[in-house]
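hiii, so i know i said id send this last week but things got crazy w the move. better late than never?? heres the sequnce for the chain we talked about at the cafe, plus the structure i predicted for it. fair warning i was half asleep when i ran it
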Amino acid sequence: MEIVYNDEELKYYMANAVKASQEHPVLVDHYLMGTEVEVDAICDGKDVLIPGIMEHIERAGVHSGDSIAVYPPRSLSPHIIKTIVDFTNKLALGLEVHGMINIQYIVRDEKLYVIEVNPRSSRTVPFISKVTGVSMVDVATKCAMGVSIVDQGLRPG
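okay and structure toks below
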């Protein structure tokens, strides 16, 4: 792995450090400065429950396991929050999740970017469960067993 800051450094790395081929592809990421946002949600295959949206304190790029997240978010506009809810619903339903999903986003210049989507629990589940009063593990487990969010007495959204 190499961090490069310009085209010249990238060309040097590609010529001297790796043997790129069909068998050895090279993944190139682009770092975005912005605000990192994290969502833990639950999907039953039809509806999605988003107990809360968390905003990371550190700059984007600090590993989520090493960062601090706050709830509710401090600096997100209503437009971005609506977009996060929309993207979270589309991703959870599109991936046919029956249980938990963790999504990390970057907000930059009032645009939302997806960093990663994990159809599993995350380290923030106990935190968001405690502060919102939604027992996410219990709800997600029942969803995985076929009990809908609505049948559990909760409202999607």
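btw The chain has two domains: 1-30, 35-152. thought thatd interest u
miss u guys!!
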